[in-house]
Amino acid sequence: MYENFKSEIATQISALSGVSTDIIEPAIEVPKVATLGDLALTIPRLRLKGNPVQLAQKLASEFQPSTTITAATAAGPYVNFRIDRTTLTRSVLQAVHTAGSQYGWTNEGAGKRVIVEFSSPNIAKPFHAGHLRSTIIGNFIYKLYKANGWEAISMNYLGDWGKQYGLLAIGFERFGSEEQLVADPIKHLYDVYVKINKAAEEDPTIHDAARTYFKKMEDGDEEVLGLWKRFRSLSIEKYKDIYAHLGVHFDVYSGESQVGEGMERAMKMLEDGNMLVEDKGAKLIDLTKYKLDKAMVQKTDGTTLYLTRDIGAAIERYETYNFDKIIYVVSSQQDHHLKQLFKTIELIELPYAKRFQHINYGLVQGMSTRKGTVVFLEDMLTDSKEKMHDVMRANEDKYKDVVDPEHTAAVLGMSAIVIQDLSAKRIKNYEFDWGRILNFEGDTGPYIQYQHTRMCSLERKAHVGINLDADVSLLTEDATREIVTMISQYPDVLALSFKTLEPCNIVQYLLKLSRAVSSAWQTIKVLNQPKELAEARLLMYASARIVISNGLTLLGLEPIERM
């Protein structure tokens, strides 16, 4: 966006200081406070001898302004530069329309491959609000890597193995109904899971029976595997339907059950490295000197655990995909487990051990699958859609122009949920609250969508078209200056988001830009204005619409055009 301006500044500063332009250009950034200037050079990053404040004053006084870079002023250890307003505005708005949906994208990751593992629900359990966090955060990270030129692979590593499936099978024998299973498999299996857990609280032998059942699964007993395969197949079909509603795509559906000989090789590596200790017949890795406790990798009965399967999966994934990075999007509840996994991978000296990253997030509190207090995602989506539909119906004139009101209401409902969830830093826990989820006032998803639809409507109704050569010198108001400046900052917001993998950066930016557009709407008019002025203002609003559309898409939301 600012490359040409940075290049011009760097060339002159290089001539004045003797520092290479390769060092100068990365030290020129958009200042956090726009009133200081359009670009700022951080003097200490030039590694020059002398006082940075005095050096800034010297370089600012010697800098020769041009028709493009109109001023240079010192402020502490910085030199701030002003860009000719018309030149900057034209450059920004034309860049947005030229790049379109890829405005702000880079090719930084060209030739690199990343796997983003996210969502990963447990088979035969309902998809609830807690699972949603991993899904929408992971989907954002997946899209963000693609926007930075990486080849990104989205992977869903299903929890489809373990003692709980023995527990579910025993529960189905006691409480199962073939008729209910066929009618609504996920809900029925969930009901069975809650009932068998309640029964196990009074009869601990149920857990023993579940362990025995799972041992048969690991030993390859066809009869017990047949029931498990059925539960797994029914669950996956249901999940695929839910992901389609969420607009989430997975390149790979994997699962704990799919880990093969990689697990055996992992155990051999641990044994060959003398890393295993025995405790009452079970095998553990002693990670106490790394403050990570002892981690069990094989139970007394010979069955495997999550850690064993995760190590095996890591080996198989690298050999299959040859990734440059793999990101696990898993809640903070699993911080300890992921630390154990990564340390173990390091200790068995896998050459790609440094390529693993855990992106954690806070919990949605107030829900528990075992106690039956879970809030189903489908209920959330249905309720939010109905509430939004009621809001849309209140305006009969606009409602009749909406082509598919059911779909639009569903998108708005999803926008409310996602923007609320991603508005704060991902590590923060929050209490599940229907009132908060379905609040459509203030800084919400529907508010951002509403500003987008207003600008879509303006483009449809305007008496002028989009003219990239419009006379943008007519955009003289403070409100238009603010909007153009914010549009120019979008690539930097993307860069920051990529660095931190925090979706809240995008959410807060979209809310700020939406407020700026809303504030300008009543005074910076397009309709019934002279042609040249209307063209300039329409170009600005259309650019803001493109940026908001891009941001919503990056967050996994569909930008809507009418509501």
Shape: flat
The percent range for helix content is: 40-55%
Radius of gyration: 28 Å
Gap from first CA to last CA: 33 Å
| Spatial order of the strands forming the largest sheet | 7-6-5-11-12
Point out poorly predicted stretches: none
pLDDT averaged residue by residue: 91
Q: Which structural class best describes the helix and strand composition?
A: alpha/beta
Number of helices: 21
Strand content: 5-15%
Summarize this, please?
The protein is α/β, with parallel strands linked by helices.
Characterise this structure.
- This protein has 563 residues and is α/β, with parallel strands linked by helices.
- It is 54% helix and 11% strand.
- It has helices at 3-17, 21-24, 52-62, 85-99, 129-147, 163-175, 178-183, 185-202, 205-218, 222-246, 261-272, 306-321, 335-347, 377-393, 396-399, 405-422, 434-437, 445-461, 478-500, 504-521, 531-554, and strands at 28-29, 39-42, 69-75, 78-83, 113-117, 151-158, 252-255, 276-279, 282-286, 294-298, 325-329, 356-359, 364-365, 430-431.
- The strands form four sheets. A five-stranded parallel sheet has the order 7-6-5-11-12, with helices on both faces. A four-stranded antiparallel sheet has the order 1-2-4-3.
- α11 (261-272) crosses α12 and α12 crosses α13 (335-347).
